[in-house]
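Bench notes, afternoon.
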Amino acid sequence: MPKRYWRTKMNLPPASRATTLTHSGASSTSRSKDSPLLGCWRVSMRGRKIISEGSFRDELLRQGESGGGGGMLQSVAGRCYPFAYALLLHSARASTSLPRTRVTSRERAGALALVVVTISWGVSFPLVSDAVTGRSGGQLLIFLGLRFLLASLAFLPIMGRVIAAGAGHGARPWLFSLVIGALLFAAFYLQTLGLKYTTPSRSAFVTMLSVPMVPFLAAFMSGRRLSRVHVAGSILAIIGVALVLAPEGRVNPNRGDLLTLGSAFFFAVEILMIEYATRRAPALCLAFGQIAAAALFFGLALLIVQPIWPAEWPGLMLGVGVTGIVCTTFALGLMTWGGARVRAELAAVIFALEPVSAAFFEWALQGRAMVLSQWVAGLVVVAAVAGSSYFGAPEENPAGAQGPR
């Protein structure tokens, strides 16, 4: 039977658009001589099962990062029925990774890393609450300034890599960093000030509203239509947060809840800005630059406010150390490492558990627990955020860029 060659265009990055597929009537396994891939694909006779035999996904990611020529599936010579290739193309288009029959150790390690990040973000809420209780607004600036200064200093061991990554990009990475740092300054100050007047669990659930805000802001800025999934998920998330704030059946947000809602807005804008900037500047420069810029803005604010320095430092410095090193720099690095090993959909589901982690540590560290109705409402929020992130259209979900929490 003569061979038939199929050509198709995939919705992938520019360096990976051209894709040549080979089809013949038989079912077997073959490997192209000039293929850059490390393995091959075996497709069953009926096209019902596709099994990876090699490091296809690793090579796919490597080509995408390096921007090398050729398509992700270019030069893959296979022999199968059309349905099998249709399934192959659908999977690649949907998630830029081919279907796997089992979870790999690489993915398990990445998922575990993201769970650790989520736990660290959750524990930061009661720690910050304890550190800022009874302190003035100026002393909050001291706390946050020291936190981000310490987080910036943690980059010193890799400053050579940061400078090398920014070489040849001019001032662009640092200008982006200033903008993102200003957003971090506003978001963290409002969130930390809000923790003076509300509980850590309420603060965490209100902060989670930043996630459903992102597609709405993206649609407003770009003119795209919102998907029904995002609209439904956002409505459910708002209802869930309202029920969390109404343990006695009446919604009564306090001053801290409203301040935290303002911080959620700035976090949402920050997510969009990071997504925009990472396409135009090295991510490593942005990671350091945004934290250093936030520390700079907190320092400038201190010069204006000139607060009374705290009389007692131990509790404050414990919060500074844990949130600066563990919850900011360490979490950012671990999030980058783990996020490269799992699907964005799974990462979104894991990150949606942040308020649950905060509620648990509020009970463990402060002895305060949510009532049953709040737990049910909280699970509604988690399900709404995770569902809209998982099932939403990829173009409406900016690339998971979450900054330090």
